[in-house]
Write a structure and sequence with these properties.
The protein is an all-alpha fold. It contains 11 helices and no strands. Bound molecules: 2'-deoxyguanosine-5'-diphosphate (DGI) and fe (iii) ion (2 copies). One fe (iii) ion binds next to helix 2.
C-alpha cells in the first residue's frame, strides 16, 4: 500500500523537535531504527484501517526514547517518578526502556495522550487486550526496514496479510527465544500469547 501521509505543519515542527531530542539521547543506529519504526507504524495503520496516522507516526518515533540510557538513569527515573518494577521487571534491564520511556514522555515532554503512552508502555512485552495502536507499534517494531533477523521477511509478509497471524508469529518468536536463552517471560507476554491461543 502506498504511503501518502503528511504531517500538518504543527506536527512537522513537533516531529523536528522530537528528532533533535532523539538524536541527543540515542546512538545513530537506534535513531535510525526509531525513524524506520515510525514509517512502519504509519504503513500498518493504513493497512489495518487505524485512522490516526500521525499518532502512529509519533508512537513509532518515540517508542525507544530511553533505550540507550544507562542502568543508573533507568533506576533513578523509576525512583523519581514512583514506578515500582515487578520482580521480573526489576531483574530484566531489556524491559525497562518501555516503562522509563513513558515516564520521560509524560513528565519531561508533557505528553498526556494515554493511547500513545500505553502503546509505548507495552511495545516490548505486549499484553492481553491490546488496543489497535498497541498492536501496530508492537508489530512495526518487528518489521521496520532496519530489522534483519532470520525470518523478518515472513514476519513482514504476515503483518501485511493478517494482523492476528502476525501477532501470533511475533509472540511465539519472542517466547521461544526467551525460553532458549533461559530468560524469564513477563506475565504480560504470556497473557498476550494465551489470549491469542484461546481466540483460535
Ligand atoms: O527496543 P527494541 O530492541 O527495538 O525491541 P523491544 O523493545 O521489543 O525489546 C526487545 C528485547 O526485549 C529482546 O531482547 C527481548 C526482550 N523481551 C521482550 N519480551 C520479554 C523480554 N525479555 C524478558 N526477559 N521477558 C519478556 O517477556
Ligand atoms: Fe524497544
Ligand atoms: Fe524498537
Amino acid at each position: 500500500m502506498s504511503t501518502t501521509f503528511t504531517l500538518t505543519p504543527d506536527e512537522q515542527r513537533l516531529a523536528e523537535q522530537y528528532k533533535t531530542e532523539l538524536q541527543k539521547r540515542l546512538k545513530p543506529k537506534r535513531y535510525r531504527h526509531s525513524l524506520c519504526v515510525a514509517d512502519a507504524a504509519v504503513r500498518l495503520a493504513q493497512q489495518y484501517g487505524y485512522p490516526d496516522l500521525s499518532k502512529a507516526y509519533f508512537a513509532g518515533l518515540l517508542h525507544d526514547i530511553t533505550k540507550n540510557d544507562s542502568e543508573q538513569q533507568h533506576k533513578s527515573r523509576m525512583q523519581q517518578y514512583g514506578y515500582q518494577p515487578s520482580d521480573i521487571e526489576a531483574g530484566q534491564e531489556k524491559l525497562w526502556h518501555a516503562k522509563t520511556g513513558v515516564l520521560v514522555l509524560e513528565h519531561e515532554f508533557g505528553i498526556t495522550d494515554r493511547e500513545l503512552l500505553t502503546a509505548i508502555r507495552y511495545h516490548t512485552t505486549a499484553r492481553a487486550g491490546m488496543t489497535p495502536l498497541e498492536e501496530i507499534l508492537y508489530l512495526a517494531d518487528f518489521i521496520s526496514d532496519d530489522r534483519d533477523y532470520d525470518g523478518v521477511q515472513e514476519m513482514r509478509q504476515a503483518a501485511a496479510q493478517d494482523k492476528q497471524t502476525a501477532m501470533e508469529i511475533a509472540l511465539c518468536f519472542t517466547i521461544t527465544d526467551l525460553v532458549e536463552r533461559r530468560k524469564p517471560i513477563h506475565p504480560d507476554t504470556l497473557d498476550a500469547y494465551n489470549e491469542l491461543c484461546i481466540k483460535e
